[in-house]
Structures are given as C-alpha cells and as structure tokens.
C-alpha cells in the first residue's frame, strides 16, 4: 500500500553471528559459491531471511495457505470439485418449511428445546433455524459443518459452511492478489523507468497523471470502474458474468495500484541513472532501451519486490471492503474468495445486530471471527515476510 | 508564505480537472438513459417517455392515430443538448467540466438503492444532499485525526526511544495488526463485542443520563444521535427536536454538535460526540498502524543527528531532548506521511459509517453503490467521488502549508 517502503533508516538490529563472508574466511576449505553473482546474492538474502523468526513464521503460514489452495479437495472429502457444498436444512424447528431442492446436500437441524429427530442432527437457536453454532465434529456425507455455518438471511436457502468456503476461497485469493499486484507493478516499472530516465516533459506528464490517480481514494475508484462497466460489459464474448466481474475488479485494482509503483520506481531510477556503471554503458554506446532494460531496471527493482510482497497481503482486504460495500460481484456459492466470505459474514451478522433493535440479541460472533482470522492470518503473514525481505535485501538496514 | 499558498492553489486546478476527466471517461461509458437520469432525475410517472429518443404515436406530444408516425422527442433533444451529447467528445468534456465546477452534479434517483433507503433525499440535487451529510463526516474526521495524532506521535516516539524493548514490540504488533485487519471487520467485531460485553452485564436496554426513558443498547451504540424513543417514549416522536430534520441532518449549520449547542441541547451535543468515539477509534486504527512506523523510524533517524548529541552534551534533560529537539524535527515526516495517507484514511469512511449507521457522506456512498434494493445511483456515486477527491486534494494543500510552516527550506526554496 501507501509508501510503506519509504521506511528506511537504521531501524533493525544487526544480525547476530558471523556474516557469510567471515564464515567463508574462517573455513577456507569450503568451495566458493557457484553460479552468477546474482545467485550468490539470493543465497545471501536467504541467509538473512532465515535468521528472522517472524519472517519464517510468515513464510510457514503462507506455505500452509499454498498447500490448502493446491490440495483443498483433500480437506473436503466427498465434495464435488468446483463448487461449495450448498446445504439446506431438514426437520427445522418452529415450523419453518423444509427448504431442500433435489440434489442439495441436506443437513438435519432441530430447534433448541426440542428433541433431536435422530443422531447426527445439529441444534439451532430457537429463533434462528439456520444458524448452527461452532462445532468441531466432522460429519462426512451430509456436509461437514465445523466452525459454524453461514446463512445470508435466517430464512434464506443460500447457506453453506464457512469452513468449506474458506478452504475453496484461498486459491482465488492468491490468484487474484498476485495478478493484480503483478499487473500494477509491471505498469509502474515501465512508466517509472521511462519517467525517471528521460526526465523533462515526459517525467512531468507522467507524474501529474500519477498525482491525479493518487488523489482519488482507491476503493472509490474501483467502485466506480466496476459500477460503470459491470452492467455494460457482460456481453464480452466467451465470458460469463462472474468472469467478467472478476476481470473488471482485477483491471480496476491495477488502475489503482500502478501510480504507487510508478512513483517508487521513478525515485529509484533517479538514483540509479547517476551511477558510474550507467555512465560507462552510455559511454560505450549502449542504446537507451538497453541501458534501461539491462542496467537501470534490474538495479532498481528490489524495492518493487518488497512493495509487491506487502501489497499481495493488502489486496484481499480491499476486495473484502468492496464486497462489503455491496458489490456482490461473486456469486458466492460458485466463487468463494476469503475476503468476500468475510464480507458476507459481516453483512450476515449485521442482520442479527439489527435484530437487536426489536430486543432479541443473538449474535453468532464466530461467523465473523473465523473468516476474519483467516484473512488476518494471510495478511499478517505476508506482512511479516515482506518486512523480513526488506531487512534482508536492504544492506543499510542490516548494518 | 502567502505566495506559496497561492502557488499551491494554482497547481491544484490541473489535478482537479484531471480527476474530472477520469470521471468523464467513466461517465461516457454509461448508457445515454442512465446519464440523463443521473443528470435530470427520474422521469415522472405522468411522463415516463421523456428519455426516449423517438416517441411512439400517441405518447406525450406526439399525435395519435390519424397520421400514426413516430416523431422526435423534444424533451430528449433538449436534455441531450444541455449535456452536449450531440456534439464532439471535446465539447462534451468541456461541458462536463463546466457542470462539475458549477456543482451541477445531477439528481438523486427515486428508485435507486440510495433513494429507496433514504426517502427524504429522493429527487434532490446531489450537491444539496452532500451538503447535508458532509458536516457530520467532517466532525468525525476531525475527531479521528485527533485520535490518530494523539496516539501515533507519542507512541512512535516512545517506541523509538525504547527501541527493541517491550514497548517497541507492542507498537510493532499493533501496527502489523492494523495492516492486516480490514476496517469493516474490526468495526463489526468492536460493535458485536460492545453489544455482547455491555449487554450481558448491563442489559440490552440502557438508561443513559440523556435518555432516562431507556433505549435499546444497539441504538445507543449506532446512529448519529438518539432515536425517537429518547424524546417521547417508544414509537412516539412527540418531543423530537425539529432541527434534527427528518433525523438525517441538522440545522442551521449542519454540524451536529454545534447545532445542538446552538439550540441548548447540551446533552445531545455530548451524546453525539460519545457516539462518534467508537467509529472514530476504528477509523483511526488503520491509519495509526501505518503512521506509527513512520514516526518511529523518523524519530530514530533524528535521534542519531548531531544536534541531538549537542543538546544532550549541554546537559538538557533527556525528556526535553526527546520532546522538544528530536520530536519537533521528526514532525515533518509525520505530516508528509499523513498527507499521503489521507486518501486511504478518507476511503475508510463509507464502510465505517455503513456499519455504525452514521449520517455522513460515506453512508451516502455506501448506499448509492448498492444494487440490492434498486439500481446503482450513478449521480450520487460520481458526486461523492468528486467530493472525496476534493477533500483529499485540499487536505494535501493544508499538509503542504503546514509543512512549509514547519520547514522554512520548503517555502523559501
């Protein structure tokens, strides 16, 4: 997000223990690092990253998320791949109708105060027949319901397990956030390099455009992009409504994100282009394109990596905010995403909070706590990792 | 100094025009009917034909059976001409910019989500509606800005002075959790926590000094000011003050606390501020998280500078060195970052105001982008976007002026 890589300065403690150079000097028998100098640099970065406990914790959680994203089917036995287990209740308490349609996974619920029809039924609060309290039991076949269920409205048939939604949503979260950040960073890298290298009118024009984009609040910009194009662009050939909306959101967020990167890269390029090696390249007759692509960009790209890793954690939060503001751009049964599920849980909880207006206060707090904690775990581990990367990559912070 | 301010204000114009150009591009992508509805409001039930390009025989001014020919719609043609839609794109752009600068921001639709959820604003000019709702947002923003500055500067300084001690680690954890918690989640958690915590200990009906007849706890924790039950019992609106017009805005100034003071309702002014506290804290939390890191790091840098060492060697107490010498010099960074963060800060308002049901501009935006109760209200969406952009741009000017005031090198250089 906003200029967090701007934090520099002597902030972090020196890494304790010998630096790799000293270690090498102490053990001259060891063979020197093979490969290119860049490979050696990667190894050195990994060395410093390894020593940062928080970063390692973050990396571990992220690897866990990646495993879940790749092997979500493992965690949900018996669930058809590609859609959430949308379930309905049978035997609902206080006279609520059986809302099942053929083919839907059925669960058995019974109201508080009544007796269970048979084993394996879930007790629900008497006023809210579809809200199932958190439970950690797995019930194969009827749809596992650990951690509570999410119902959009207490009487609605659109209900599914939060657990399943989160499991199925992680892959989309990763895909969307990585693609948004990569797109924004690429555009920013390109424009920032041009702006910083050429200077003058080009620089002035690009930077004023950046200023304009930066003065529109980010969420608002995406909102108006989606609001305007969502209704008109559903006819794009070969894409259904969901895919179009997902694409629109990604494009909208890229449009929001590129100015940050442009500014960041331009600042770096302004420093890099004065270096001796750039001068040498110019003196030996290298073309502008070659200087930019081979000398300037590779040497000003590290802050971009750090900012990218920070932003990958921020995107789902923005997506969640967007979904919360009322863009139901993801039909949630078929397109779960962690942020969207968190947003829907909060929307759902608000229905219960509003219920407090008539004096019945029943608050299924776990419905926001569990998706919230998932989102929080993802975002904070990305932040830990990015922070560790910054410390490892920036030599000024190490010393 | 004045020259500097004037120069900054002149530089502002191209940025505002640029933002308007972006919204123009987006508006141009809308269907013509939507643009006409956004500009001139819904067609009345008596004349539903006014936005049709050609009239079928027998509708409106078009004559009926004898000659049975469709004819051009004069109202449609007039409206198209007002917006310049029959002219080249550059002329359209010019007309759009002119309308935007003269606050012709369109009309609220009757059947859009915002119009249906807030009946009193139906069919009104967007700028009037925003004028009603803006003062509350300004008060809320000022309160949360005060909280942000009151927390992040002392805590950042403390963290820098006690580097890598428990205080620093606590500040770091706080700032990380601020990055990772979306505002709406925090807001709902806080609200649910307050409801469960207070409700289970005190009860779900509370009797506050300013509402002795009792009010539901949920209504006490949300909303801008007390519900009608505080004024004349449940369901009755006997004593509901008339200056709380429709319960959605106040008169004469529009600032709720000032209006309450003007009318002598001191308890209501106090209650308005009390109700703002929870949302202001939630809004502040995300910004504090970011600002805290910058304050800490800039403080660390300043503490290593020569003049701090000189001050110490002169025997000035450490407390004074930190607060006077180093603290003031690290303020520059704080203010710059606050300017950069302002768009992020103000972008959080729609969500918080939606969760807490506060009568601010953010609520208008949150309602206008919904397409659940009715269609999206494009006039309100674009109006609020322009307004938020104006706020951000002017806040940046204020930040720049403050910065120039603190650092003579900027205004003289």
What does this structure look like?
- The complex is a heterodimer of chains A (399) and B (413).
- Helix content of chain A is 59%, strand content 5%.
- By secondary structure, chain A is mainly alpha-helical.
- In chain A, strands 1-2-3 form a three-stranded parallel beta sheet, with no helix packed on it. In chain A, strands 4-5 form a two-stranded antiparallel sheet.
- In chain A, a hairpin with a 7-residue loop joins β4 (149-151) and β5.
- The mean pLDDT of chain B is 87.
- At the A-B interface, α6, α7, α11, α12 and α13 of A face α1, α7, α8, α9 and α12 of B.
**Biggest sheet overview of chain B:** 2 strands, antiparallel
- Helix residue percentage of chain A: 55-70%
Q: Give helix and strand order of chain A, one letter per element, not per position.
A: HHHHEEEEEHHHHHHHHHH
Number of helices of chain B: 18
DSSP strand count of chain B: 6
Q: Please list the strands of the largest sheet of chain A in the order they lie side by side.
A: 1-2-3
Rg of chain A, nearest Å: 26 Å
Structural class of chain B: mainly alpha
Mean pLDDT of chain B: 87
- The low-confidence parts of chain A are 1-20, 137-147, 152-157
The overall pLDDT of chain A, averaged over residues, is 75
Structural class of chain A: mainly alpha
Query: With helices defined by DSSP (H or I, 4 residues minimum), what is the helix count of chain A?
Result: 14
Sheet with most strands of chain A = 3 strands, parallel
